[in-house]
Amino acid sequence: MFSFQPNTRIRPSPFFQAAVADGLKMANVYNRMVMPTSYGDPEGEYWRLINGVSQWDVGVERQIQLKGPDAGKLAQILSPRDLTKCAVGQGKYVALCNHRGTIINDPILLKLADDLYWFSIADSDVELWAGAIAAERGLNVEISEPDVSPMALQGPKAEDVVAHVLGDWVRSLKYFWFRETEIEGIPVAVQRSGWSKQGGFEIYLRDGTKGTQLWNIFKEAGKPWDIGPGAPATPERVESGLVSVGGDTDDMTNPFEVRLEKYVDLYVPDDVVGIKALRCIKAEGVKRHQLGVILEGDTPAPLGMQREEIQVNGKSVGMLTNCVWSYRMKANIGFGLVQSDIAAGTEVTVSRAKGPVSARLVELPFL
Ligand code: THG
Fold first, then answer.
1. Which ligand 1 atom is nearest residue 243's CA?
2. Structural domain of residue 329, as residue ranges?
3. Residue that finishes a domain, picked among 170, 203, 237
4. What is the number of domains present in the chain?
5. pLDDT of 8 over the 90 cut
6. Which atom of ligand 1 is nearest to the CA of 232?
7. Using a 6 Å CB cutoff, which residues line ligand 1?
8. pLDDT single digits (tens) 82-125
């Protein structure tokens, strides 16, 4: 039995009660909200994501809404990615950077109308950031957090479940595109997205009083496909090479270092926050890069609270930013953020709490 003392600082999502009813056993804090992480069977939850369909309370992916005549202008000022071709109904993955070119968040941007955008954010206070920049630039735009909470259906059978609830049109939704609709009168936006590489959808609930109802609609509809509750699965996202900003990045990490270069357009206008720094970083040469690390050993040995040093010939060359047991590779794997001159194929040593462990650097993704 999991219990949580609600308070005004750490908010549960509208799906929290349903998650608890479904046997939630572990949770974390993300965006100052409760993020469910496990229902007591991490390996079973992993294989359900790989082979079936998993239902996630990801209400911690808060939405920051930009509304008004300058909404599009502000979205572009905050995003070092060309948004001029972003259509209404389309989403884009963006690496928000500060003025030094350091990544501070990596949201999905949803364009709902020419004057209405949502940043679906990772774990940092984008509302404060967006509000400050809008005011400093004198923009005519209102920034708020709307009543919107994502729930994810992930896995190879997610499409069948979502099509069963909403109709076959969802099968032709392109990656990150979305449509606004209703499910039994509940207002939602439905997007092909989610923090796994197993395919799936996110249902953005637009009425926080209907969380349990929406959760149970999908729980019922998914029974023929053996749906079950789950959460963003660290083994899967590491195998798949998805970056966790704040976990795999530090206060110096730029997008080039963590394989996000394809989401940066250096030609965007000079008023885009961080773009001048990003051009300099690129011109001077990127000093670190992110590689996969495969550690020796045949028992799970996750990373604790600290990142661990990666060494070559006794010299530090970077850090291990996560480590998890891969059920498919049958090894402990993680991401290394290492000097650019240390290439894939290099044999390294990871300085771990219980002593040094041999490891090999490889290109990402692992799978
Ligand atoms: N869904 C929604 N909001 C979110 C997340 C999400 N906000 C926080 C967090 N996740 C943002 N981070 C990511 C990171 C990676 C991806 C999505 C959100 C992702 N990346 C693919 C990749 O890297 O291969 C594809 C990117 C692309 O091709 O454009 O999917 O999950 N609502």
1. 14
2. 287-367
3. 237
4. 2
5. no
6. 31
7. 61, 93, 106-108, 120-122, 150, 193-195, 202, 242
8. 999 999 999 999 999 999 999 999 999 999 999 999 999 999 99
